[in-house]
């Protein structure tokens, strides 16, 4: 039942949340983060597994509307007047609902409509349950901010839906300062700016920062003069939130020491479509005939284990207490355990969600919150951590990724060869019969 909203009431109300049937693992952490952001209790969410329906206890309608003005994982939210396994049980439940809450919508001149949603079955008209619709989620953001329509993109520009989920996991709010140390084409800055945060970042690739070089779109050879990160923010009317992006190496922080950022949101390179690089000096190079002593390469390989340890140390030092780090961690699924997720004494793990990449690889969306001030000794905590050797296993992710890909291609080729042999045998047999 879709009815006009009313002012918030003092008592806690039950609300029925209709969730989208995609990115299912990301749904509970996003809703919990938004409840926490707006002062709600993150423990009042009932777990319904893969069901698209979820019941929340929310203290006021204003908080419910704030949640729905941010979420991209939910479609609609309804004030729940009653529920039951049969019509009689539903009727009894509705009759117990406070009459003073229902009276404004039961007047002779009131209008309403019926919205039907079902999961894993088809409902008859008699089985339809009426609910009060108070707000819709922000699913349209996925389309309006689609990467396909974006002015400036790269090989690894983040999907719009996942970008907004990351911003919600980070509890980004107006006037926050948000930083991305591996900014790329700035896809993660856009949703943060949409939510009113000021955004900045660093990127080691000069051409990417300045929008130069070869284009990544089909049928376009070179990037245009106005293809850059600032133009992406301008496209959505968000340029006023764009501070700047610096050409800089994420392994060598350039900031004045101390808490600075309200959130750090990033998608580090995995070495698949984008290489992992950092700047180096001659002392870090093994001298060979190819690279004589007088030659200093500009960039060196940046191992994944070092990327994540540096990222956690950086976040522990430069986040404000209560600020969040949200990042993607690639994993080789046959060897994955929770122990391989990097830890830090200043950061508390909030959520860990999986997105499948292939049958043997995936990436985990890791959300952490800073819980104590950074001390110099904390940057060496990983040396005392018995799990540190497990973190180094991330360094071979690229090899494992392509190893699994090669094996899959080989299996497919063997299968095709087997089908062809069967076809040839059938043709030969037919000729013999003739």
TrEMBL record:
GO terms for biological process: methylation; tRNA processing. This is tRNA (guanine(10)-N(2))-methyltransferase TRMT11. GO terms for molecular function: tRNA (guanine(10)-N2)-methyltransferase activity; tRNA binding. Its main location: cytoplasm. It comes from Eleutherodactylus coqui (Puerto Rican coqui). InterPro entries: DNA_methylase_N6_adenine_CS, RlmKL-like_Mtase, SAM-dependent_MTases_sf, TRMT11, TRMT11_N. Residues 14-133 form the tRNA (guanine(10)-N(2))-methyltransferase TRMT11 N-terminal domain. Belongs to the class I-like SAM-binding methyltransferase superfamily. TRM11 methyltransferase family.
